[in-house]
Automatic annotation (TrEMBL):
Transmembrane segments: none
InterPro entries: C45_proenzyme-like, Peptidase_C45, Peptidase_C45_hydrolase
Pfam family, one: AAT
PANTHER family in the cross-refs: BETA-ALANYL-DOPAMINE_CARCININE HYDROLASE (PTHR34180:SF1), PEPTIDASE C45 (PTHR34180)
NCBIfam families for this protein: C45_proenzyme
Domain Peptidase C45 hydrolase: 112-306
Official protein name in the record: Peptidase C45 hydrolase domain-containing protein
Length: 356
């Protein structure tokens, strides 16, 4: 089944109201999914989650008032309380990183003036019907195209200035509710006109939890290992690429116990596969990246193309829900190809295009 496509434009309030009205059913379904997940991972019911969300709501209102206005309007449009929307957007922080979303990402400046930014997004299949493709058109800011969850204001995508974002969850402490929840940090990056402008904004605002943001523009990719207590920025290697999974490579400022044993395996594997494309002098394209890297089943179920692990509780089992490959070119407009489902499985959907 192809995902919804929702186009939003106007002021923060106009964008939020349309988001909430169009996606009311999906937002409420997401709350049900995360309510069950919070109970499993954190022993928190939704009323307790909303109580924790109050501190993040105050932070969002103070640091990014336009996004808070948008979230208030989402809640109004969906007939919910703003704390429900804040909780969705701060779900990684509220659960102290106890979710087990995987994800494998790759940024590659494979030639002068051509940059790819891509990932498999791994998460519980219970949210699949509530994921959508969204565009956001705001006066005075780059237009955004992204794949996101209903009710969440920033995620994986790119903008008309050829700035793109991918994410990898990290499980580490501490969290800091006086800083910006990570999904809002992604939105701030997507409103930026360059990677460096995004980095400057995020350094000013701070990020509330340990997370990895793979960002790229026409200058190439950068790996941002972010946390409330320190960050590391990793450049691409001599071949122009950098990959990341679900553990920090250089950031040692957080308490990060081992939590996802397949993460180092996937990182080694994606580096191996990408290096093979380099050594084979393979012409890079979205199709090649999907077929040669993001369909890979090595070390299944914890593979780049992730399969559900029946040993995990059903509420937290992850699998690859979509693949996105963004392309930034000095010769044209930024584009992306999105494949719903596990690439290369034979059960995935057709290639979808952004912009549409």
């Amino acid at each position: 089944m192809a995902p919804l496509r929702v186009d939003l434009f106007g002021s923060p309030r106009e964008i939020g109201l349309e988001h909430g009205r169009r996606l009311s059913a999906q937002i409420k379904a997401q709350i049900k999914v995360y309510e069950a997940m919070f109970k499993t991972t954190s022993k928190l019911d939704w009323s307790a989650v909303r109580e924790i969300a109050k501190a993040y709501a105050a932070t969002v209102e103070s640091l990014t008032p336009a996004l808070y206005t948008e979230m208030l309007a989402i809640a109004e449009g969906a007939d919910l309380d703003v704390l429900d929307i804040v909780a969705l957007n701060a779900r990684s922080e509220i659960a102290l990183g106890l979710f087990s979303d995987g994800c494998t990402s790759l940024g590659w400046k494979c030639s002068e003036g051509q940059v790819y930014l891509c990932q498999n997004w791994d998460w519980t299949a219970r949210v699949k019907e509530n994921i959508l493709m969204m565009s956001i058109d705001q006066p005075g800011k780059p237009k955004i195209w992204m794949v996101t969850e209903a009710g969440i204001v920033g995620k994986i995508g790119f903008n008309s200035s050829s700035v793109g974002t991918c994410l990898n969850a990290i499980r580490a402490r501490p969290t800091d509710p006086t800083k910006l929840p990570f999904h809002l940090a992604l939105r701030i990056a997507l409103e930026s006109t360059s990677s460096q402008a995004a980095i400057s904004s995020l350094e000013s605002l701070g990020v509330a939890s340990a997370q990895h943001l793979l960002i790229a523009d026409l200058t190439g990719p950068l790996s941002l290992e972010l946390s409330p207590v320190g960050r590391a920025i990793l450049p691409p290697n001599e071949h122009g690429f950098i990959a990341h999974t679900n553990h920090f490579i250089e950031n040692r400022s957080v308490d990060e116990p081992p939590w996802l044993a397949n993460s180092p395996v996937r990182l080694n594997r994606i580096n191996e596969l990408t290096n093979k494309l380099v050594s084979d002098k393979q012409a890079v394209s979205s199709t090649v990246l999907r077929e040669c890297i993001f369909s890979d089943m090595y070390n299944a179920p914890g593979s780049i193309c992730c399969q559900e692990d029946p040993a995990r509780p059903i509420e937290t089992r992850s699998s690859t829900l979509f693949n996105i490959i963004m392309k930034f070119s000095a010769k044209g407009q930024p584009t992306a190809e999105v494949v719903w489902g596990k690439p290369g499985s034979g059960e995935e959907g057709q290639v979808l295009h952004m912009p549409w």
